[in-house]
Amino acid sequence: MPMRELFLDSLVWLILLPLIWATLAFVLGPGRGAWLAIAGLALQTWLAFDVAKTVGTGEALAHAVGGWGAPLGIDLAVDGLSAAMLVLTQTVALPLAVYARSYFKPGDPQGAWFWPLMGFLLAGLNALFVSADLFNIYVTLELVGLAAVGLVAAGGGAQQVAAALRYLFATLVGSGAYLLGVALIYGVYGTVSIATLVPLVTQDAPRLVWIAASLMVAGLMLKTALFPFHFWLPPAHGGAPVPVSALLSALVVKASFYLILRLWLGPMHAILPSFAWLMALLGAAAILWGSWQAIRAVKLKRLIAYSTVAQLGYLFLIFPLLAVPGALQAGVMQVFAHGLAKAGMFAAAGVLIKATGQDTVAGLAGAVERLPLTMGAFALAGVTLMGLPPSAGFLAKWQIIEAALAQGYWPIVVVVLAGGLLAAVYVLRVLRQAFLLTPVNATLMPVPRALEWSAFALAAASVLLGLRGVELMQLLGGGT
Predict the structure, then answer these.
(1) Residue 44 CB-density burial (10 A; 0-12 exposed, 13-18 middle, 19+ buried)
(2) What is the CA radius of gyration of the chain?
(3) Does residue 316 register a pLDDT over 80?
(4) Mean pLDDT of 276-304
(5) Which sign does the torsion angle of CA 434, 437, 443, 449 carry?
(6) pLDDT at 4 over 50
(7) In this structure, are residues 92 and 116 in contact, taking their beta carbons and an 8 Å threshold?
(8) DSSP SS3 for 120
(9) pLDDT of residue 39
(10) pLDDT at 479 (0 to 100)
(11) What's the pLDDT at 11?
(12) Which residues contact 369 (CB under 8 A, 6 or more apart)?
């Protein structure tokens, strides 16, 4: 088989592999399939880096599934942006799979169907990042949303089911708005192919196209949990099992942002810039509101969930800045920084909760003395969220500030700096409590070392990426 065909097959295998091991895990029964998932994810990670390496040479690749291309068939396409998202997805999911294997005890109802649902979720995410038409993106959005809702509802507790139902409502409304926009686009142009639509959609497009763009972006904002559409995120992320919270915060909400960015750079390039400052305004509100709620949060996981609301706001600050080349790189770097750091922070929180039996910030007294590796992971993730050097968070925020200064947008600079200070408040609040003396009557449950090292690896990666950000920037320039 020629090397080019082998590579294109590796792109397809990124979708098929998680479907295969997820199905096998389902057949094996409740709680089974951890090693299948870890082996599959190891191979997926290699494939994702292989795709990124090839795309980094500067060639955008496309593949017609079954030999039938658009408009009759399904096209897959990968460029620098989608290759970067594929790398992030597998890189975060693999250590979280190792973490989940030790986190869920045999017979734990919360982990009964974790492995098949995780596989379907990852298959949906990988397919979403390489889909080349608007309707297939909708299909992948639904697969991701339904798998995520199932993960949140795992265990069947009243609070979890309530959070899952709220999440289900949000994801269905968001997907429905997106699908209605796709239907309007098809009605006007007779195609949903992204490549075909790029030259067709102009500023003189019919009013229906403007309505379609508004519906699609609004639906995706709801699924991204951008303020004020964030009502579903804190209960879902705060109440779900820790591996689920980490997956949702690190990866799932980024998929909707990726689609907004893809529409902006692709078929809606002539329309969406009209909404740039509205997105930035909502992003700024998200940073301030989410940070304030994190500062006030009593429970540790709720604090981290509100931190996600805040950190997502930075992604939307880049839209008025996209005329400057560095703005896109800043947004993607923030996606990576937050994805790795938030997965590590949730994983560290899971260790602390298991060890202390408490889910409150006040219950962390003495944690540094008793769990130094875990608190080190939390601190490293906090460094990234605060935007301190040499972390990837610092690099992302520095690039946003640089792009804003280049265009004279001082309000964006002020928001970025204020967000960093507010993040320092809620991160240092946790660390301060952890440095207090251990209560005399405190007990500490033993925790598997795999949990601690998985959390530390993710958090450390978010810092070390700041030292190797050039490779990611070069990837974004490849195949676009």
Answers:
(1) buried
(2) 21
(3) yes
(4) 93
(5) positive
(6) no
(7) no
(8) helix
(9) 94
(10) 47
(11) 80
(12) 438
pLDDT at 437: 67
Q: How many residues does the chain have?
A: 480
Nearest CA to 239 out of 299, 196, 176, 173 is that of 299
Nearest partner of 114 among 251, 240, 224, judged by Cα: 240
98-122 residue pLDDT tens = 999 999 888 778 888 899 999 999 9
Q: CA 400 to CA 215: how far, in whole Å?
A: 27
pLDDT in the model for residue 324 = 82
Q: What is the DSSP letter of 206?
A: -
* Residue bearing tokens 């996600």: 308
Residues with Cβ < 8 Å from 199, sequence gap 6 or more? none
Question: Two tokens at 187?
Answer: 């009605």
Crossing angle of helices 392-406/449-464, nearest 10°?
Answer: 30
CA 469 to chain centre: 18
Classify residue 446 as exposed, middle or buried by CB count within 10 Å of its CB (0-12, 13-18, 19+). exposed
Q: From CA 139, how far away is CA 122, in angstroms rounded?
A: 14
Whether residue 254 contacts residue 339, with contact meaning beta carbons closer than 8 Å, is answered with: yes
* CB-count burial class (<10 Å; 0-12, 13-18, 19+) for 29: exposed
* Beta partners for residue 75, in sequence order: 64
Q: Are 75 and 63 in contact (CB under 8 A)?
A: yes
Residue 309 near residue 230 (C-beta atoms within 8 A): yes
Backbone angles phi, psi at 216, to 5 degrees: -65, -45
Closest by Cα among 461, 315, 291, 472 to 386: 291
What's the pLDDT tens digit per position in 191-231? 888 888 888 888 888 899 899 999 999 999 999 889 888 88
Kindly state the helix (H) or strand (E) to which residue 386 belongs, with its residue range: helix 372-386
Residue with tokens 């379609």: 212
Return the closest-CA partner of residue 71 out of 204, 191, 213, 175.
Answer: 191
Nearest CA to 303 among 245, 247, 253, 255?
245
- Residue 405 CA to its chain's centroid (Å): 27
Q: What angle do CA 252, 192, 77 make, to 5 degrees?
A: 60
